[in-house]
Amino acid sequence: QSVLTQPPSASGTPGQRVSISCSGDSSNIGSNSVSWYQQLPGTAPKLVIYKSNQRPSGVPARFSGSKSGNSASLTISGLQSEDEAVYFCAAWDDSLIGFMLFGGGTKLTVL
Amino acid sequence: QITLKESGPTVVKPTQTLTLTCSFSGFPLNSNPEGVGWIRQSPGKALEWLALIYWDDDKRYSPSLKSRLSITKDTSKNQVVLTMANMLPVDTGTYYCAHGGLAGPYGDRVNWFFDLWGRGTLVTVSS
């Protein structure tokens, strides 16, 4: 089964720009859109990016997403302390009749 | 306003079958394009997608768990039920249901995302 690879950790200081990568292959990220989820401690995940680069209403504009080839990125510009969380990427895989994959998660620390 | 809430046993014994119910409101699951999915998370671990049921009763399952899973819907009750057979201690974790959103053209069965999640229910597998 395919996997989506994320770095286990990332960090930045308030006001900085931080990017989190998500690497897959041609059967998932290379073919389909990517979504990103933020999980604060003890809470359910929250959608922050869908269709690779679209923000749901209510998500601050400092969150942005991009996709190129078999990889995707979540970028947070103007990092704030409340952005400290675990971030997961997700994409569907076209293998078999289709299934969804999540990345392993990246713990973002605001220093 | 869309809401989802998971319910079911908090403890199951090894080899038993787990039955979880997702009770939702704010959308008609029999309308195109709507879907409800299940995702789980072992303590301190990553999210793992389990299954998705579409408005027309089409279903998708995780390939690694397909033989153990079943997802059904009851639109009259606004409920989606997930059953998982032969539960093992490694299946311990928080189980979430979530509302599916379509990121592709109508009829697309991939390119779905989860825009709203329930709070989750913790299931422990122990004798």
What would you note in describing this structure?
The complex is a heterodimer of chains A (111) and B (127). Chain A has 111 residues and is mostly beta strands. Helix content of chain A is 0%, strand content 45%. In chain A, the strands form two sheets. In chain A, strands 1, 3, 4, 7, 8 and 9 form a six-stranded mixed β-sheet that branches. A three-stranded antiparallel β-sheet of chain A has the order 2-6-5, with no helix packed on it. The mean pLDDT of chain A is 95. Chain B starts with a strand and ends with a strand. Chain B has no helices and eleven strands. In chain B, 40% of the residues are buried. Helix content of chain B is 0%, strand content 52%. In chain B, strands 2, 4, 5, 6, 9, 10 and 11 form a seven-stranded mixed β-sheet that branches. In chain B, strands 1-3-8-7 form a four-stranded antiparallel β-sheet, with no helix packed on it. Chain B is mostly beta strands and 127 residues long. The mean pLDDT of chain B is 95. Classes of the chains: A mainly beta (111), B mainly beta (127). Chains A and B meet through strand 7 and strand 8 of A and strand 5 and strand 10 of B.
Give a quick summary of the entry.
Chain A is an all-beta fold and 111 residues long. Chain A is 0% helix and 45% strand. Helices cover 0% and strands 52% of the residues of chain B.
Topology:
The complex is a heterodimer of chains A (111) and B (127).
Chain A: E1 9-12, E2 18-23, E3 34-39, E4 46-49, E5 63-68, E6 71-76, E7 85-93, E8 99-102, E9 106-110
Parallel strand pairs in A: 1-9
Antiparallel strand pairs in A: 2-6, 3-4, 3-7, 5-6, 7-8, 7-9
Chain B: E1 3-7, E2 11-12, E3 18-25, E4 35-41, E5 47-54, E6 59-61, E7 69-74, E8 79-84, E9 93-102, E10 112-117, E11 121-125
Parallel strand pairs in B: 2-11
Antiparallel strand pairs in B: 1-3, 3-8, 4-5, 4-9, 5-6, 7-8, 9-10, 9-11
